[in-house]
Design a protein that fits this description.
With about 120 residues, this protein is an alpha+beta fold. The protein has one domain: PEBP-like (Phosphatidylethanolamine-binding Protein, Alpha-Beta Complex). It is built from three helices and five strands. Strands 3-2-1-4-5 form a five-stranded antiparallel sheet. β1 and β2 form a beta hairpin. The chain is globular and about 40 Å long. It starts with a helix and ends with a strand.
Length: about 120
């Protein structure tokens, strides 16, 4: 339920932001309080701008990181981030681990630039 609420808050932010219907976007969702480093819950790219306001339909899960429901053992803070892609080529990831995902390296390697929308929320066990 938290993720659904989080995404709909992001939609409100996007509808008032720099959304281009003809562009492609990347979504990152991670647990920033996970033991051992942040935990990647979802990584999805090539989300068409014209469908982004209706949910993250279309696009592809990147590196096999399909959606994983948050289930922390203690209250943890999660963040969902949306980046505009510089092209229609699918972003790539150089790791197969969800643990300690290096967001800065992923953003730099794929030329994603700055976050255009974000939302943080807490999930309780």
């Amino acid at each position: 339920m938290h993720c659904v609420i989080s995404y709909y808050i992001l939609i409100r932010i996007l509808s008032n932001n720099r959304l281009s219907e003809s562009a492609m976007y990347t979504l990152v969702m991670r647990d920033v309080d996970a033991p051992g480093g942040n935990w990647l819950n979802w990584l999805k790219g090539n989300i068409p701008g014209d469908s982004l306001l209706y949910g993250p339909s279309g696009g592809v899960d990147i590196g096999g990181f399909s959606y994983m429901k948050p289930s922390p053992p203690t209250p943890n803070q999660f963040e969902t981030l949306i980046y505009k892609q510089p092209s229609t080529s699918t972003p790539f990831v150089s790791t197969s681990s969800r643990l300690s995902f290096d967001l800065d390296s992923f953003v730099a390697a794929n030329g994603l630039g700055g976050v255009i929308a974000s939302h943080c929320f807490v999930v309780y066990p």
